[in-house]
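Lab notebook page, bench 4
Experiment: in silico fold of construct C2
Operator: M.H.
Input chain length: 229 residues
Purpose: comparison with the prior construct
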Amino acid sequence: MDTSPTALFDSYEQDFKQFIETIRDKLDDGAPADQQRKAALRRAEMELDEADEMVSQMDIEIQGIPQSVRASYHTRLRSAKAELAAQKKRLTDARAQAARAELLSSSSSPNNGADYPASDDPYGTNSDRTRLLAGTTLLEEGSKRLQQSQRIALETESQGADILLNLRTQREQIENSRNTLQRADLAIDRASGTLKKMVRRMYQQRAVTYSIVGVLILLIVVIVWEKLS
């Protein structure tokens, strides 16, 4: 398993590119049937949500990349964000085109006056009522997706804050360890200097002792020599 600081970023970027490829295929697919086109656009929207989540994860992971290579990853992240925005715009345009095509299709369909709203039917025909209900359902689904996106964003922000807090704690621990090592080095240097002084004094005392013993031996020899002579 790759444990390099950029491994997770690369993995999220690869997943993002795969989502973008499938989204492009769905948006480029001009399905002739309205229902098929709507289903393709719904799937594209769900995959766009997943791609947005991948970009959020990339934005988090880039904080842990070393400064020496972070600039190139910032460029890749900006490119991913631009691509995501472009695909979101394409999805919005595709939805507008689908809605326009559906409206034109319903307007051009033959009728014998049954499609006109009656005085006691404020919502018009069943077709109008169905479109209104479909629009309401679509709005509710959009609200749910928005709430889910907000929840994911809050969770991601919380995780990012926890990661930054852990990194700050680790940095403080490393700095404390470095300060402890520096103090230990200073203590070892002082102890080494003290030992050297003690050894030097020991040699001095030994030299003085040998000198005194030598002088005593010389005096004894002189005294013995004088007595014998």
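Observations: The longest helix spans residues 126-228. The two ends are 98 Å apart (CA to CA).
Next step: discuss at group meeting.
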